[in-house]
């Protein structure tokens, strides 16, 4: 079931900051940190599970399988990327029902043409506003709980300009979206304009190295945003750490103290070996 904590946070004005997770290790670590949401990033999930770019290559079934596993193993409310809904209106209904049944709390749907592209890469194209409005209405009608939140994302800024993106955001809000996500504004001035012009909880996408300025939660709240996702922090940090660790091993023939590592004992606790050992102590055969 969706977690009502996110809707309550929006109602009380608590800022929601969600780190990106993309596999069970990243999810288990983030789940212990006390965040009020986790964000299952499509980019990171496709990269980690398929080794491919976020370019519409992952299917609904592949994404749902990974997302459902993350939800089942964590206690924090999950926001999950659902790309374009994986097809037309019937696909959107199927996707919403599947994500909600899996225990996701908020689903992100975007107005790109299929196949979609990562929101901070070039050459994105969007479908007509009216088509996305219908998708949002279908998504809203398909959910069984009001605590299951619909995030409507527009990628119109890069190809059609800020005014078009804001117009779309307002239309998606009117269609029933709980949260509006204008992708890749390119300055604080643009972000402030989005905050002024759209009367709905707003989501900011804080991509390290992306097109949008990296801002603190406090600053984003001042600009009128209610939610921030940090999708790349996990997989970029992991890629850097693995590169350093593997290079250290290659150069020295063993690992050295130059590369800090999680302790093996702590990692065993993270993934639940203590429960396995307790089970074995309790139920092991005795003479």
Question: What do these coordinates show?
Answer:
InterPro entries: ICL/PEPM, Pyrv/PenolPyrv_kinase-like_dom, Pyrv_kinase-like_dom_sf. GO terms for molecular function: lyase activity. This is Isocitrate lyase/PEP mutase family protein. Keywords: Lyase. It holds the Pfam family PEP_mutase. Helix content is 48%, strand content 13%. It is an alpha/beta fold. The chain folds into 2 domains: 5-232, Phosphoenolpyruvate-binding domains (TIM Barrel, Alpha-Beta Barrel); 239-283, no CATH class. The protein has an 8-stranded parallel β-barrel, surrounded by 8 helices. Helix 6 (129-142) links the parallel strand 4 and strand 5. Helix 5 (89-101) packs parallel to helix 6 (129-142) and helix 6 (129-142) packs parallel to helix 8. The chain is globular, with a radius of gyration of 20 Å. The termini are far apart. The relative contact order is 0.13.
